[in-house]
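Quick one, probably user error.
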């Protein structure tokens, strides 16, 4: 294989194909052991001692490695494949100027719900089969298991695959039993619950919700899931201005009970710096009283109601019937969840986990690119 052609143009390094990398930036991003700790991937180079006028003096390529001698006398080394990946990605703007959002094309957006796929709970103990279940969670926003033993141990084995229990006002591993009002929250009642996001009152809403049913005697109480990303896409087609407003206008949520007063806010459609939809937040039960600017009142209320009209269409919802031994993981940043009315007794064990741990599990499993 011939070595990649690289060259210097002014203060930039030019890679094959015309990709340019600014010298001052490259001097700060070496992969050699003097620049980056090989054990921790933490930066060692003193970023703030780099002369802003630094320029590349000479280049050499061998074995997928770019060596750069610099005008300040330093030498850095760079993995060419990683550098090409970074240089090929869209350059990050200071402020997002694009309207609306795009969607990660590797996700399976569903507006016409697929049949519920039940994974055998045994796959939680199988490294190979587990990755398939994890990928189902990544692509669809939920994954369901059947045939589990009861109790906390199987729940904890599942949680360990995607992170660890996240402590909240509900504790770390919670018990949700009908009729037992441990908290003054609609989740503990028997009525139907509209689909919603958990933790709109948290600056960092739970990444996943994990449920494990322990007891069920009556009828009803199916979990109801909606793909909020697919609904956002469809709402954006119907009302691009309304969807764009929901990416910018922050809605506040709250959780209040004796001794607790939590509040946080973010746009219902939170978009990353690259314009890709990253997180949905919608919980009309927990929405706070915030008055929009006068000229925005109708636009905000119409956009909020317009998105809700799309995602609350029952034809979009998956219903997941419960029985003891079933487990469900819902990506709380991707899907809205609710439940149908029920009778009798039912009891769940469950917990929240963080979204960055889930994303880390995807990276480790090779399901999304590593940074
Ligand atoms: Fe909930």
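Nope, works fine. Designed sequence:
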């Amino acid at each position: 294989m011939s070595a990649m052609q690289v060259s210097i143009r002014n203060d930039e390094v030019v890679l094959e194909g015309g990709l340019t990398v600014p010298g001052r930036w490259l001097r700060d991003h070496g992969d050699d052991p003097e620049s980056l700790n090989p054990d921790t991937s933490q930066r060692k180079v003193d970023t703030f001692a780099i002369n802003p006028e630094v320029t590349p003096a000479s280049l050499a390529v061998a074995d997928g490695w770019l060596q750069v001698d610099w005008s300040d006398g330093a030498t850095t080394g760079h993995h060419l494949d990683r550098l090409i990946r970074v240089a090929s990605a869209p350059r990050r703007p200071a402020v997002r100027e694009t309207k609306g959002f795009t969607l990660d094309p590797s996700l399976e957006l569903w507006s016409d719900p697929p049949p519920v796929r039940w994974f055998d709970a045994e796959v939680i103990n199988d490294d190979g089969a587990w990755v398939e279940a994890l990928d189902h969670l990544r692509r669809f926003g939920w994954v369901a298991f059947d045939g589990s033993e009861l109790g906390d141990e199987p729940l904890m084995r599942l949680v360990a695959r995607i992170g660890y229990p996240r402590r909240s006002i509900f504790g770390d591993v919670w018990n949700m039993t009908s009729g037992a009002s441990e908290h003054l929250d609609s989740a503990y009642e028997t009525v139907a619950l509209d689909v919603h996001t958990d933790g709109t009152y948290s600056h960092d809403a739970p990444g996943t919700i994990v449920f494990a049913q322990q007891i069920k005697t009556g009828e009803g109480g199916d979990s109801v899931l909606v793909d909020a990303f697919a609904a956002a896409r469809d709402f954006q087609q119907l009302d691009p201005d309304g969807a764009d407003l929901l990416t910018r206008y922050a809605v506040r949520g709250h959780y209040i009970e004796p001794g607790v007063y939590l509040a946080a806010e973010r746009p219902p459609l939170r978009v990353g710096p690259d314009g890709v939809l990253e997180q949905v937040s919608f919980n009309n039960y927990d929405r706070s009283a915030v008055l929009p600017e006068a000229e925005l009142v109708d636009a905000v209320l119409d956009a909020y109601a317009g998105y809700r009209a799309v995602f609350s269409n029952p034809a979009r919802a998956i219903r997941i019937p419960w029985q003891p031994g079933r487990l469900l993981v819902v990506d709380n940043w991707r899907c809205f969840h609710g439940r149908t009315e029920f009778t009798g007794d039912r009891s769940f064990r469950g917990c929240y986990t963080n979204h960055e741990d889930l994303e880390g599990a995807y990276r480790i499993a090779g399901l999304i690119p590593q940074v």
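The helical segments are 23-27, 80-88, 127-140, 152-162, 228-238, 240-246, 297-311, 355-364.
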